[in-house]
Write a structure and sequence with these properties.
mainly alpha, 2 domains, Rossmann fold, 5% strand, 7-stranded mixed β-sheet
């Protein structure tokens, strides 16, 4: 039996402690367009109104045990015409999934607007005590300080002529604006690969509705209820997000290479905790992070994290004017000043960081907060704008003033929004000042409001197709990016084509519809969850726990399987040949790459502890700090991560001699004493020399040559010789290591794609590898360093230089391959895997050091 949902009208619904809902008037015989926020409007016609029933804005609060009469076939309205489908009134009542699950819903469940995703979010206006309703007929009534009292025509509910309406109205055109913004996000992602400005519109609208919500509460004398607001908002947002994240984890396991699994697991938990943007900032600056951000199916959660963080912080601003509101004074002017200050500071920070570090600024909440401020400013100023421009809603029964200007302004806003990203390639300019373009475009649509013209943009945005996309906008944003990323990985394409892009978009719409119907709508309208705060909190905690269990459980399962996978490998495969058949297991697995960075077990302590610290240097050592320094040989590794990758090759010798090994490397900085250094590396060379002076090591290993990813150019950088000389003069032996090949693309992922597609290591070599002559110099540029000797007089035990050239082991027979035997050579585009160093390079290094003194 189908029953119409109880919360389907074009009004906001008050909470249980709110005053009774005033009845919307029907002025001038003009009936307001009813609100539509259910998806079944596309599949069935609206229920006809029985003779004598109230208009679409009147709905008595049902009793908890009331039942809705059964809908019969004869009750159904005739099929709609094309005009009704595109521009006619939206249906007033339909059934939805939650009606089947829990019966009629109390009106208080559908609360006021809090965010730009909610289908209840395009409401403006406020509630007033019933005693004021009789006075609302009088257009001369004014509120405190002579301001018009709240009503429904603008964000404060004031009609254009200063009169009062009896309730808030549903802004169909803003609901349709969601559809445009989301459509731009999806279309630009699928076909253009550019920034559209759609996300910025959602941040803008979120602030617009949030500010309207709390200002209405202040001006009507109701409590702010910020904790309850937090519970209500995240109870509504988290369950659909959790379902999407869990589905994405399943899709990742099925379709994405295992090298991306750890990234997706991390982002799954960060997304559910609304800190995805912070994680992406960390990954941007983390030297050890894999460059997989663009391929992550959960990367788009960064904007939801920014939005969620703003939902937590922004309501606190309204606490500053609570006392002022209780004294009957205006709260808008002090809020405007406060929001202007925050917005100016954030915009300044955004411009500066966008110019200096745009990849980090893009995800930075502080650099995006000015967009939130812009939406709040419009919400606070809209009543004045409406009064000055003579704004009227359809519910007023009279056309607004400046009809032509309104229609043109609305179209200009949409045109500017559509052009953003096509006419202007703003991808590298966001979120700086250029984001003003989409925000101004959205603001133009809001200010234009009801134009009174059939050809106005508000009429187009109020159609049923726009309402449908607006209804599923949140779920569509959640699912479209994972679907796209999974398809591109599966198809091996960089960008979707016309036909497969349409399939991706259609599939995303269908999945979004299912998520909305099965998860979003029941949770959002559940009176049981709304009845007690702890229930909403339970829904939030359960959603996060499911994601944490899914990602964490998957990681635990993988780690339990890793020993079996390692021992199952064919150990007799030659490590200097490229296999023409696929080994049983190629090691390490993609999800194990994070463990391939070489680390020593102890933090530097005892005699080996540095007297001072240095940025980006984490001193590590092999033996505990209480080891007898007098009987221990000390080997210090300095320079960049290309020196650090040789540490596993030193360990057999160190363990045999009982030697201490110290890791003093700094990622991205070679040891080049005496050379001119940039800001990042400045001071590192002096720090190394100061450290070796303090502990007097026996040997120092450092990389002395420098390779290039795009050519065979391999050089001996300025400062390499002087660094070696400085160590020799201190009586320290030097192991001068030759650099390893660098690549323009990730060698592990390149080989992984070939092998996962059924190819062999030999085919991966053909697709990804290169001749040694294309990656290394014909001869080792470090050879002249072997002739260096200490400058001072010797004592029979002079320090010496040992050249470490492992190019024949890394590129056997003149070919640099991504996989040798059953081991991947590279973990990314320029670093060797720890397994390869341990199993292939360590024996050669042990032999070389045994022959040295």
């Amino acid at each position: 039996m189908l029953r119409p949902t109880a919360a389907r009208k074009g009004i906001a619904i008050s909470s249980p402690q709110d005053p009774p809902t005033p009845r919307a008037g029907n002025r001038g015989g003009h009936r307001a367009h009813p609100r539509s926020d259910s998806l079944e409007d596309w599949t069935q016609e609206a229920l006809p109104e029985a003779p004598g029933t109230p208009g679409p804005h009147h709905r008595a609060r049902p009793h908890s045990h009331s039942r809705t009469p059964t809908r019969t076939r004869s009750d159904r309205s005739p099929g709609s015409s094309l005009d009704a489908w595109t521009s006619g009134p939206l249906p007033t009542a339909t059934s939805s999934l939650d009606d089947w699950v829990q019966g009629p819903i109390e009106l208080h469940v559908e609360r006021e607007a809090e965010d730009a995703w909610s289908t209840a979010g395009s409401v403006t206006g406020t509630w007033r005590p019933p005693a004021e309703e009789s006075r609302s007929r009088s257009p001369q009534r004014t509120g405190p300080e002579g301001a018009a009292s709240p009503a429904g025509g603008s964000i404060d509910g004031t009609s254009a002529d200063g009169g009062l309406r009896s309730g808030p109205v549903f802004r169909h055109e803003l609901h349709g604006l969601r559809a445009v913004a989301l459509g731009l996000v999806a279309i630009y992602h699928i076909w253009l690969g550019r920034v559209s400005g759609g996300v910025d519109v959602f941040l803008f609208l979120s602030a617009f509705f949030l500010t309207g919500t709390f200002v209405r509460r202040l001006e009507s004398g109701r409590p702010l209820g910020i904790p309850r607001y937090w519970l209500h908002t995240f109870k509504r947002l988290l369950p659909p997000a959790a379902v999407t994240i869990l589905l994405t984890l399943v899709g990742t396991a099925a379709f994405l290479p295992s090298s991306l699994w750890p990234t997706v697991m991390q982002e799954a938990v960060a997304s559910a905790a609304y800190v995805q943007n912070a994680l992406l900032v960390f990954l941007q600056v983390d030297y050890h992070a894999r460059d997989a951000g663009g391929a992550s199916p959960l990367q788009h959660f960064w904007s939801l994290s920014v939005q969620g963080q703003a939902f937590v912080v922004w309501p606190l601003l309204f606490l500053l004017v609570v006392r002022r509101a209780r004294r009957g004074k205006s709260v808008r002017r002090p809020l405007i000043v406060l929001v202007l200050l925050i917005g100016a500071a954030s915009l300044t920070w955004s411009v500066i960081t966008t110019q200096t570090q745009q990849q980090v600024a893009y995800f930075d909440t502080a650099a995006r907060l000015w967009e939130f401020a812009a939406g709040s400013l419009l919400a606070l100023a809209l009543p004045v704008i409406d009064r000055i421009t003579g704004a009227y809603r359809p519910e007023d029964g009279r056309p607004p003033r400046l009809r032509l200007a309104r229609a043109l302004t609305g179209w200009a806003g949409i045109a500017a929004l559509l052009a953003c990203g096509i006419v202007l390639d703003v991808s590298t300019m966001f979120p700086g000042w250029i984001a003003i373009v989409p925000l101004a475009a959205a603001g133009a649509v809001v200010v234009a409001g009801h134009s009174g013209h059939r050809w106005g943009i508000d009429a187009l945005l109020s159609t049923r197709p726009a309402a449908f996309v607006g209804d599923i906008s949140y779920a569509l944003y959640l699912v479209h990016w994972p679907v796209l990323v999974l398809w591109l990985h599966h198809s091996g394409q960089q960008r979707a084509g016309l036909l497969d892009g349409l399939v991706v978009l259609a599939g995303s719409v269908l999945l979004a519809w299912l998520v909305t119907r099965a998860v979003d709508a029941p949770v959002r309208r559940s009176r049981w969850l709304e009845a007690r705060p702890w229930r909403a909190l339970t829904a939030i905690a359960a959603s996060f726990a499911l994601v944490l269990a899914g990602a964490g459980g998957w990681w635990l399962v993988l780690n339990q399987q890793s020993p079996q996978e390692t021992t199952a490998s064919a150990q007799d495969l030659p490590t200097d040949e490229v296999a023409t058949t696929v080994p049983t297991v190629i090691r390490p697995a993609g999800w194990q790459l994070g463990s391939q960075w070489p680390d020593l077990p102890q933090r530097c302590a005892g005699p080996w502890a540095p007297s001072v610290s240095f940025p980006h240097v984490t001193c590590q050592q092999l033996l505990p700090g209480d080891t007898d320094v007098d009987t221990s040989e000390t080997i210090v590794v300095v320079g960049s991560s290309h020196s650090r990758q040789y540490i596993p090759a030193l360990l057999p010798t160190a363990e045999a001699r009982g030697a201490q090994v110290v890791n003093l490397t700094m990622d991205g900085c070679q040891f080049l004493a005496g050379a001119e250094r940039d800001g990042y590396c400045a001071g590192y060379d002096e720090y190394v020399l100061s450290y070796v002076d303090s502990i007097d090591p026996d040997t120092v290993l450092t990389t002395v040559t420098l390779t290039d990813a795009g050519s065979a150019e391999e050089t001996l950088p300025d400062g390499a010789a002087s660094s070696v000389q400085a160590l020799l003069d201190r009586g320290i032996d030097v192991i001068a290591a030759r650099d390893t090949p660098r690549w323009e693309s990730d060698q592990f992922q390149c080989a992984e794609d070939v092998i996962d597609g059924g190819g062999t290591p030999a085919e991966a070599d053909e697709a990804c590898g290169a001749d040694a002559s294309q990656k290394l110099a014909a001869s080792n540029p470090a050879k002249p360093l072997a002739d260096l000797v200490p400058a001072g007089p010797g004592d029979g035990a002079a320090a010496e230089v040992t050249l470490l050239d492992l190019s024949t082991q890394i590129c056997p027979e003149g070919r640099c391959s991504p996989v040798l035997g059953d081991v991947s050579v590279y973990m990314d585009d320029d670093h060797l895997t720890r397994l390869f160093v341990e199993e292939t390079l360590a024996p050669r290094v042990t032999e070389l050091l045994a022959n040295s003194r």
